């Protein structure tokens, strides 16, 4: 990586403009954060590990027909991706009761849900990523009804693909976060899939 313009500095990645105007470079960092970035620590090798895990998952999803922003891996901690208009939403899928779901509803932890739960959170560090419902998403102009339906359909399809993928490695896919963006008018999966978001 040489002299690329920094477009965005995140908690886990930096994003730089690539040579091609329609692409950006995602560089994974060794920084670990908690409480929405309020606590930080450097973990050597974390960026490489997250990049490699994300590449493995994205390759699997692409081979199974999921459209993503991934163009190619450039190094052990860098990926070239399509530049998208990202929806400021975190899409959380829950398959097994855990964490905030258990606290919110005072239910037993570790129970398989009869159907996956989809939750939306407004992506804003300043607001601590608050929960947002579909009506609010539409009213605030974040996404229209059709876009939300496409996001939900894709999220559920990704979930159905990932459950057996992780089961082969003896992992239960309890819950995870996805992000989506638009590229040439099409809604696609963006960001990463790593221990940072599942």
UniProtKB/TrEMBL annotation:
EC number, UniProt record: 6.3.2.6
GO biological process, one term: cobalamin biosynthetic process
SUPFAM superfamilies: SAICAR synthase-like (SSF56104)
Listed pathway(s): Purine metabolism; IMP biosynthesis via de novo pathway; 5-amino-1-(5-phospho-D-ribosyl)imidazole-4-carboxamide from 5-amino-1-(5-phospho-D-ribosyl)imidazole-4-carboxylate: step 1/2
EC top class, as a word: ligase
Pfam families, A to Z: SAICAR_synt (PF01259)
Catalytic activity: 5-amino-1-(5-phospho-D-ribosyl)imidazole-4-carboxylate + L-aspartate + ATP = (2S)-2-[5-amino-1-(5-phospho-beta-D-ribosyl)imidazole-4-carboxamido]succinate + ADP + phosphate + 2 H(+)
UniProt xrefs under InterPro entries: SAICAR_synt/ADE2_N, SAICAR_synt_PurC, SAICAR_synth, SAICAR_synthetase, SAICAR_synthetase_CS
Domain SAICAR synthetase/ADE2 N-terminal: 6-198
GO molecular function: ATP binding; phosphoribosylaminoimidazolesuccinocarboxamide synthase activity
Keyword entries, A-Z: ATP-binding, Ligase, Nucleotide-binding, Purine biosynthesis
Gene3D superfamilies xrefs: ATP-grasp fold, B domain, Phosphorylase Kinase, domain 1
Family: Belongs to the SAICAR synthetase family.
HAMAP family the record matches: SAICAR_synth (MF_00137)
Protein name: Phosphoribosylaminoimidazole-succinocarboxamide synthase
């Amino acid at each position: 990586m040489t002299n690329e313009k920094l477009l965005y500095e995140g908690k886990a990645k930096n994003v730089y403009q690539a040579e091609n105007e329609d692409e950006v470079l995602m560089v994974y960092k060794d920084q670990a954060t908690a409480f929405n970035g309020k606590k930080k620590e450097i973990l050597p090798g974390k960026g490489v590990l997250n990049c490699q895990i994300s590449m493995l998952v994205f390759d699997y999803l692409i081979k199974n027909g999921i459209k993503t922003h991934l163009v190619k891996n450039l190094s052990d901690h860098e990926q070239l991706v399509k530049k998208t208009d990202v929806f400021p939403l975190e899409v959380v899928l829950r398959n097994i009761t855990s964490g905030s779901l258990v606290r919110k509803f005072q239910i037993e932890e570790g129970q398989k849900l009869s159907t996956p739960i989809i939750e939306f959170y407004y992506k804003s560090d300043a607001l601590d990523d608050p929960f947002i419902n579909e009506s609010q998403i539409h009213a605030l102009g974040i996404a229209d009804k059709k876009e939300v339906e496409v996001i939900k359909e894709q999220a559920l399809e990704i979930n159905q693909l990932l459950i057996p993928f992780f089961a082969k490695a003896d992992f239960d896919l309890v819950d995870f976060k996805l992000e989506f963006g638009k590229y040439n008018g099409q809604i696609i999966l963006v960001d990463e899939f790593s221990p940072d978001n599942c």
